[in-house]
Amino acid sequence: MIARWMAGGAVAGPVLFTAAWLVLGFVSPGFTIFGTEIAPYSSISAGISGLGLGPTAPYMNTAFVLTGVLMLAGVVGALHLIPELSGRARWTCIVMLGLSPLGAIIDGFFTLESFLPHFVGAALGFGSPIVSFVVTGLLLRPIAQWRAFANWLLVGSPLTLALTLLYFSTFEPTAEGARTGVAGLTERILVVEALAWFVVLGRLAIRRSRPGTGPRQRPGFGRLPAWPSQRRLTMAVRPGSRAGGSSRSRP
Fold this sequence. Notes:
By secondary structure, the protein is mainly alpha-helical. The protein contains eleven helices and two strands; from the N terminus they run ααββααααααααα.
């Protein structure tokens, strides 16, 4: 099924991007921006976008674009594997969640030296999930099989907001800021957290689309912790079900 292959992009894209900044951050000697040299490169103080300049530029910018393309395909595929969604709800989720992949593609074409479009891309990349996670969570919540993920996705929105505020509180848009501080580290924590939700979405969609895999037969990875209200509801229903079964009179 084509949709299942596409959904794999929601997993492959974040994995590719994370591997790219990990490896390139280790080998990068530094970069030059607006005539100012930032060397050596530090993953603690310098942002991921700094890898889009200097010797690592072709590789990091390619990773930005490929990540965006894979994730966009993954979002489309994963949501098409949820037949319970109406057409309008599905495309609403696709548009909202597709903003992050679009941001990655923009950042791949416009580096830090094209500051305004690069900033727009970054804002879409890790800022749009603050809203898109809420919208997607609310639209998935009525679907019993997806309710647990939807509830956790609603938690992901304020978590992403908190990490975004943490990042901007440590970010200094100066050459000195790229040499010292911890903005590189806080940015990476934010990016990993935001991308992790896409990985879970893609993985769950693939698992649950397998023939014979129903809500009660999901493989281990597909099981998310039940929301507290669901546990209370389950505990309240079970005793009554047993009582009803035991009250039937035998002939």
